[in-house]
Amino acid sequence: MGHIRNGKGVYGRLQKRLDRFPVGAPPAAALYEILKRLYTVEEAEIAARMPITPIGLDGIARRTKKPPAALLPILERMADKGLVMDFVRKGKTSYVLSPTLVGFFEFAFMRVRDDIPQKEIARHMVAYAHDDPTFVRAAFAGKTQVGRTLVHEAALDPEDMTRVLDYERATHLVREAKAWAVSLCYCRHVMEHEGKACAKPMEVCTSLNSSAEYIARRGLGRKISREEALDIFARTREEGLVHIADNVRKRPAFVCHCCGCCCAMLSAINRFKMFDAVATSSFEAAFDPAKCSGCGLCAKRCPVSAIRIEGEGKGKKAALSPEVCLGCGVCKPACNRAALAMSPRKERVVVPETAWQRWVTMAIERGKFQNLLFDDFDRLDHAALRAVTRIVVGLPPVKKALLSQQVQSRFFRALAGG
Question: What local confidence, expressed as pLDDT, does residue 400 receive?
């Protein structure tokens, strides 16, 4: 067991590979226990040599020195387990190693399974993803995050609806998607194994587009219609759940339906005060002091405690911590005095155009950009190039330029094409 706990051996190499993703996987005893229960030694050996960007079967065969015919059934088994993701484009299949978040953490609990010890893994998952500030700080460092908040459209006044862009509307994301799937909520399923789950709906985790096709194909969830997806969103709005979507404008992969008690992303805000763990919507709660009675119902509904009640007696009023407010609109239905509205923020929240742009931006912010460019860790020239790139990109003027809106579009197009 020593090679599991101290990070040596194949699971240590796998941890280092996973930690090169922008989200990261810092070493911890709980993580090694998770990896041991999810990956066989053979699977871990292959995963530790896979790149962190999509690659075909022949490319993985070169990296792992395994014949494609012998490698394919192993990759298929790993895809069924959610350890790698496969995508078919123009008749060609590419594989990519699943990161921790959003990745194999969620896939392990999107269904009830008997091929892995879910109860054991859940215990280690809580210790690592919920209780360990080291992982939380690694996963949610920087300004660009995996998830972004969608404001409940019913919480907006009609005149404000014109301010909402298409990619900010849950209904638009669902209607424009090409495929839909639903799975168990990873967070509540984990907490259920720990005896701590809330009573919110379980089968609501929504996947869209190519992600939905993968989820359904691999049996991690079930395929649903557009109409059922819209019904799920309506039901979770009524339940007061936060809609946290894939933080991209085009072809989003998922929308979660989150509670403040079980959600790993909201837990980072509630437990560790990492107020940037989820990108906010372009709205925030606003109060009319003349109408507010200070009843506190809105504060009770807020999933991240962004609302507090100030004053005494008849002078009690609701007040907002803007830096905490997600702009989700969950609080709005609680107010029966028309004292609460969702007000546009002074600056619209910037949303990455594609998953690739978000991934690169996160990598730059977290000092991991070099891992995307030179990710063959068996090559000495790649090691040298990573070291040089890390230093250059870490220089404030270079980092600022790479993150600026003026150069991003051309830069990301060049990377994607090259």
Answer: 61
Cβ contacts of 222 within 8 Å, gap of 6 or more = 181, 182, 183, 216
Are 52 and 371 spatial neighbours (Cβ–Cβ below 8 Å)? yes
Q: What confidence tens digit (pLDDT) does each residue in 333-372 have?
A: 999 999 999 999 998 999 999 998 898 889 888 888 877 7
**In a 3-state reduction of DSSP, which class is residue 84?**
strand
The closest of 247, 85, 270, 275 to 187, measured between CA atoms, is 270
Residues 6 or more apart from 226 whose CB is under 8 A from it? 174, 175, 177, 180
Burial readout 205-220 (b: 16 or more C-beta within 10 A, e: otherwise): bbbbbbbbbbbbebeb
Q: Worst-scoring range by mean pLDDT, 125-134, 273-282, 327-336, 385-394?
A: 385-394
Whether the CB-CB separation of 150 and 243 falls below 8 Å is answered with yes
CA–CA dist 204, 228 (Å, integer): 10
Residue keyed to tokens 């005494």: 312
Global pTM?
Answer: 0.90
pLDDT of residue 1: 40
Beta strands in 239-377 (DSSP E): 242-246, 254-258, 283-287, 307-310, 317-320, 340-344
Distance CA 130, CA 127 (A): 6
- What does the block give as tokens for 329? 């609109």
Q: Collapsing DSSP states into helix, strand and coil, what is residue 110?
A: coil
Note the pLDDT tens digit of each residue in 214-225.
Answer: 999 999 999 999
Could you tell me if 282 and 163 are in contact, meaning their C-beta atoms sit under 8 angstroms apart? yes
- CB neighbours (10 Å) of residue 368? 23
HSE-up (13 A, CA, CB side) for residue 272: 21
Whole-number CA gyration radius for the chain: 22
Tokens of 167: 């990619």
How remote is the C-alpha of 220 from its chain's centroid?
Answer: 17
Reduce the DSSP state of residue 417 to 3 states and report it: helix
Mean pLDDT, rounded, of the chain: 90
Q: Are 79 and 96 in contact (CB under 8 A)?
A: no
127 secondary structure, DSSP code: I
The pLDDT value given to residue 386: 60
C-alpha to C-alpha distance for 336 and 354, rounded to whole angstroms: 39
Q: Residue 215 carries which side chain, given as an amino acid letter?
A: I
3-class SS at 188?
helix
Q: Return the closest-CA partner of residue 223 out of 282, 183, 260.
A: 183
